[in-house]
Each structure stands twice: as structure tokens, then as C-alpha cells.
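Q: How would the C-alpha cells look for this protein?
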Amino acid sequence: MLFKLAAVAVLLPLASAQFAYTYVYTTPTDWVSGQPANVSWTAEVGDPEQYTLLLKIFNETTNSEDNWVLAQGIDTYSYFANFTLPDVVPADGYFLLPVSVKDTSTEGPPSNKFSIA
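A: Here is the predicted structure in C-alpha cell form.
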């Protein structure tokens, strides 16, 4: 039993490191619903080579998060992406969330919250 626990203790950090995200986004400004937009970020060696970028906001009416895919297969080390925003309700409280291309339940750190006009 101790051998199994030791094996798990050794392998767990390796599994976690495989999906480590250290992205830091430049907080979006002047984004307008349905219009072209771009975002830049920093990343570190060891971050996944590609990811999917989600736009999210907490919906108080449904008491859940609404989300939209902004871009898929983004090259992490391009440090820049452009896309057209979906038609969303103008509001404060939107944020960006990177997720794994292979496993959408694996999330990176969210951006700061921002507004869309």
C-alpha cells in the first residue's frame, strides 16, 4: 500500500505539470459586441502549445456562467490572437478563460474582468 501511495505521490506532479497554464492576459479594452477584437498574453515554457479561448460571464438570471468560444487551436507562443466577438449583451464582468484543446475541463487562469459595449 505504501508503494502505491509513493508512486501516486511521484506521478501526480508530473500529470499536473502537463496541463500547467501560466497565461497572463492584457485586460481587454474597447471591445464591442459583434466587432473584431484582439488579445495578447504572456506564457512560460511548459505551457501547452495550443489552447481554446473562452469568453465567459456570470448570468444572474440563470445563476450560471454563459460562455462562447472565441478561438480554437491558438498557438500559445504567438502571444496574440484576433477574432470577431459574438453578439453578446453589453455588460461589465466578462472574462477570458483558456482551456485545453484536448480536455475542455482543464482550465487555465482567468483574465481580469472587463466590459464589452
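The first strand starts at residue 24 and ends at 25.

The CA atoms of residues 88 and 95 lie 13 Å apart.

Upvote if useful.
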